[in-house]
Amino acid sequence: MEGKISMATKRQVTLRFRDEYMKASKKDKGRILDEMCSVLKIGRSTARRRLAEAGTQPRELPAARKTRPKRYSEQSRELLVRVWMMMDMPCAKYLKQMLSLWLPALRAHGELSEYDGFAFNELMAMSPATMDRYLKRTRDAAKPKGLAGTRPAGELVRNSITIRKASDELDGLPGNVEADTVAHCGPSLKGEFCRTLTVVDIATGWTENASCRNNAFANFSRAQALIEARLPLRIRSYDSDNGSEFINRDMIAWLQERDIEQTRSRPYRKNDQATVSSPGTTTSCAATRSTTGTPPTSSTC
């Protein structure tokens, strides 16, 4: 029985037949297979497979890839990162042009006394592309992790509000506004942080901002009332995203008391709120900074 033959014995028998099988003619190969099947109590297909596996030469591992030696020293790369952060992290093309002005001033004030002249020479010789390559890891580590301060509202309440698409035409008169919020939280949503409510009139571009402690309606409604008092026009329609600070029963009732039509954008369609999300408004990522200089987080970022 096959179960009485150990695996070690099977390997030995297979290896003994392998050399003869590889050199044999087609007729002799059939005889070798019959003999091997009789000894090991296996089928011809299994015998062929074992002989083929035994005859396969182990593939040689590829030689280790040669790494190109680094052109610039470790000290000059450390100097690059330090100077880049002192300059408030400009792009490499600006950094290259600014070095001739910044380095003499920094060295004169003793800021970079631990680096020798060779490191400075190497830094001045770097191209913008090389600087970008060396700064990539540091730049990526400093980026915010794509936080979103918007929390979607409940489906039942959300579906009760009319959707306004980017292709929908308005009457062109003042009073149709878009609203959005920015959370000045930096790279983390933990703890307390200020939020800014932005309301933009679509026809005139008039923009008003107000801050609130959080998105609770008691605080959010005070910010909205402040903006309403500042606007030189009456709000006729109020368009927002699907955040819970806009889509809730208290906010719906607040707008209905003032005879203001409420609409909302489609989820994940930023073009539906192109006016309030455009550069120049507080909800624009490029235009907004918190008081600490940290980029804010909002649904438009």
How does this structure look, described?
The structure is a single chain. This protein is an alpha/beta fold and 301 residues long. The protein is 42% helix and 11% strand. It is built from ten helices and seven strands. Strands 1, 2, 3, 4, 5, 6 and 7 form a seven-stranded mixed beta sheet that branches. Helix 1 (7-23) crosses helix 3 and helix 4 (74-86) packs across helix 6. The longest helix has 17 residues, at 7-23. The chain is flat, with a radius of gyration of 36 Å. The termini are far apart. Mean pLDDT is 81; it is low at 284-301.
Which key phrases capture this entry?
301 residues; alpha/beta; seven-stranded mixed beta sheet; 10 helices; 7 strands; 42% helix; flat; disordered C terminus
